[in-house]
Design a protein that fits this description.
Number of domains: 1
Order of helices and strands: EEHH
Number of helices: 2
Structural class: alpha+beta
Distance between the termini: 26 Å
Number of strands: 2
Radius of gyration: 14 Å
Helix content: 25-40%
Shape: globular
Length: 84
Protein backbone atom coordinates (compact mmCIF):
# COMPACT_ATOMS: atom_id res chain seq x y z
CA UNK A 1 0.00 0.00 0.00
CA UNK A 2 3.06 2.23 -0.17
CA UNK A 3 3.41 3.06 3.53
CA UNK A 4 6.16 2.25 6.03
CA UNK A 5 5.96 1.53 9.75
CA UNK A 6 8.93 3.44 11.13
CA UNK A 7 8.43 2.55 14.79
CA UNK A 8 6.14 0.15 16.64
CA UNK A 9 5.62 -0.56 20.34
CA UNK A 10 2.77 -0.55 22.80
CA UNK A 11 1.10 -1.74 25.93
CA UNK A 12 -1.25 -4.60 26.81
CA UNK A 13 -4.34 -2.84 25.49
CA UNK A 14 -3.01 -0.67 22.65
CA UNK A 15 -0.09 -0.12 20.29
CA UNK A 16 1.83 2.89 19.05
CA UNK A 17 2.88 3.09 15.40
CA UNK A 18 4.85 5.78 13.63
CA UNK A 19 3.76 5.47 10.00
CA UNK A 20 5.08 7.25 6.93
CA UNK A 21 2.49 7.33 4.14
CA UNK A 22 1.58 9.31 1.03
CA UNK A 23 -1.32 11.78 1.29
CA UNK A 24 -3.44 9.71 -1.12
CA UNK A 25 -3.89 7.00 1.56
CA UNK A 26 -6.44 7.44 4.31
CA UNK A 27 -5.46 6.68 7.89
CA UNK A 28 -8.48 4.39 8.13
CA UNK A 29 -7.29 2.25 5.18
CA UNK A 30 -3.82 1.99 6.71
CA UNK A 31 -5.25 0.92 10.09
CA UNK A 32 -7.49 -1.68 8.46
CA UNK A 33 -4.60 -3.06 6.40
CA UNK A 34 -2.31 -3.35 9.44
CA UNK A 35 -5.06 -5.00 11.49
CA UNK A 36 -5.94 -7.47 8.72
CA UNK A 37 -2.38 -8.51 7.90
CA UNK A 38 -1.37 -8.83 11.55
CA UNK A 39 -4.47 -10.93 12.38
CA UNK A 40 -3.83 -13.30 9.48
CA UNK A 41 -0.15 -13.61 10.45
CA UNK A 42 -1.09 -14.23 14.09
CA UNK A 43 -3.42 -17.08 13.09
CA UNK A 44 -0.97 -18.50 10.53
CA UNK A 45 1.72 -18.72 13.24
CA UNK A 46 -0.63 -20.97 15.20
CA UNK A 47 -1.80 -18.56 17.88
CA UNK A 48 -5.35 -18.87 19.19
CA UNK A 49 -7.62 -15.89 18.78
CA UNK A 50 -8.82 -14.18 21.97
CA UNK A 51 -12.16 -15.29 23.41
CA UNK A 52 -13.82 -12.24 21.83
CA UNK A 53 -13.06 -13.82 18.43
CA UNK A 54 -11.00 -10.93 17.11
CA UNK A 55 -7.43 -9.81 17.67
CA UNK A 56 -8.37 -6.13 17.25
CA UNK A 57 -11.31 -3.97 18.27
CA UNK A 58 -13.07 -1.75 15.75
CA UNK A 59 -11.63 1.36 17.41
CA UNK A 60 -8.70 3.40 16.17
CA UNK A 61 -7.06 6.67 17.13
CA UNK A 62 -4.69 8.81 15.10
CA UNK A 63 -3.04 12.08 15.94
CA UNK A 64 -0.72 14.46 14.18
CA UNK A 65 2.23 15.67 16.18
CA UNK A 66 2.74 19.19 14.91
CA UNK A 67 6.30 20.37 15.41
CA UNK A 68 7.66 17.32 17.22
CA UNK A 69 10.73 15.81 15.61
CA UNK A 70 10.76 12.24 14.33
CA UNK A 71 13.41 11.45 16.96
CA UNK A 72 11.12 12.71 19.78
CA UNK A 73 8.28 10.52 18.51
CA UNK A 74 10.56 7.49 18.17
CA UNK A 75 11.81 7.95 21.74
CA UNK A 76 8.24 8.18 23.04
CA UNK A 77 7.19 5.00 21.22
CA UNK A 78 10.33 3.13 22.32
CA UNK A 79 9.61 4.08 25.94
CA UNK A 80 6.27 2.22 25.91
CA UNK A 81 5.96 -1.34 27.20
CA UNK A 82 6.02 -4.05 24.53
CA UNK A 83 2.57 -5.32 23.47
CA UNK A 84 1.55 -8.78 24.69
Amino acid sequence: MNFRILEFNGEADHVHCLVEYPPVLSVSKIFNHIKGVSSRTYKKEGHRMPSAGSLWTNSKFAVSVGGATIQTIREYIESQDAPN
